[in-house]
Specification:
Blueprint (H helix, E strand, L loop, with lengths): L1 E2 L5 E4 L2 E4 L7 H12 L12 E5 L5 E5 L9 E5 L8 H7 L4 H12 L4 E5 L5 H8 L9 E5 L11 E5 L13 H8 L6 E4 L6 H9 L7 E5 L3 H13 L7 H11 L2 E7 L5 E12 L2 E9 L2
Parallel strand pairs: 7-11, 7-12, 8-9, 8-10, 10-11
Antiparallel strand pairs: 1-6, 2-3, 4-5, 5-6, 12-13, 13-14
Length: 292
């Protein structure tokens, strides 16, 4: 993480540490930023002062420059381990226990629709990638992401990645576009890296029309908050669908919510697994497993 030319931070074992590395000035930092973004077809300037993309090694990069970043250019690079932890490794790390892992394995194999919720850095993508190992090898899986991070091991996987608008302001392909297109690709499962916009409505429609076994993540503070957030995101589609209809679609579409938390010492662990139920006609959650 680069905060202006004089500060470079790294995260080690879940904790932020300031390094002794720095740049001579903002001009040198801007030169480095251009060399990072150029090979992946991204750029930043006064008209487009933000950029996000995937580097050739799979890392994600985000850049913000003045006037949006007040104290100079800011760059964040999120690297991923060469070997992604599997379910058993997550048990050894304390993310799951054996009982929870058994519940999650059964849920994925039974093609239940599962949402993984949690805050930033809580390990949602890592857990999603690990649980995908329970998908049968003969299934056709479509993954949809803002920047490709998932690394599924099944032999029949199609990876789709959204694309921002070009310099002229055209050519954007959104997550929502990809979700709708994926339904024409004969998927056995749809895996969405993160639901963060109006694509939530298209996902609910897909899950209510026979596409079972979906896996996805959402930023939320708890299982009930995850339902409310998806509900709100679905309303952002602007289709004029009544609120009560969206709630009904939500209650029918989702089966389980796995909530993750990040501890003060940097650990990432499951806090609880909840089943989506109806209470007085409104989607709610019932705890199936909670960390003791």
């Amino acid at each position: 993480m680069v905060n202006g030319h004089s500060e470079v931070w790294v995260e080690r074992r879940g904790r932020l540490e300031r390094t002794g590395v720095s740049f001579a000035d903002d001009a040198q930092l801007r030169d480095v930023i251009e060399r990072v973004l150029g090979p992946i077809g991204r750029r930043v300037d006064e008209l487009s002062p933000m950029a996000d993309g995937r580097l050739t090694d799979g890392s994600r990069v985000n850049v913000v420059i003045p006037p949006l970043s007040v104290d100079g250019p800011a760059m964040s690079i999120r690297r991923f381990a060469g070997v992604r932890p599997g379910p058993e490794e997550l048990v050894r790390r304390g993310t799951f226990d054996d009982d929870l892992l058994s519940l999650l394995e059964a849920a994925v194999r039974e093609r239940r629709n599962l949402i993984i919720s949690g805050g930033t850095g809580s390990g949602k993508t890592t857990v999603l990638n690990a649980l995908s190992q329970f998908i049968e090898p003969d299934e056709r899986v479509i993954t949809i992401e803002d920047a490709a991070e998932l690394s599924l091991r099944q032999p029949h996987v199609v990876r789709l990645e959204s694309r921002p608008a070009g310099i002229e302001g055209s050519g954007e392909v959104s997550i929502r576009d990809l979700v709708r297109n994926s339904l024409r690709m004969r998927p056995d499962r749809i895996v969405i890296g993160e639901v963060r916009g109006a694509e939530a409505m298209d996902l609910l429609v897909a899950l209510n029309t026979g596409h079972r076994g979906a896996l996805s993540t959402v930023h939320a503070n708890g299982p009930e908050d995850a339902l409310r957030r998806i509900e709100t995101l679905a309303m952002m589609a602007g289709l004029g669908v009544p609120h009560e209809v969206v709630r009904e679609q939500l209650a029918q579409a989702l089966d389980l919510v796995l909530h993750l938390e990040r501890g003060p010492e940097g650990s990432r662990r499951a806090a609880g697994l909840s089943e989506v139920v109806r209470v007085a006609g409104v989607p709610a959650v019932r705890e199936l497993w909670v960390r003791g």
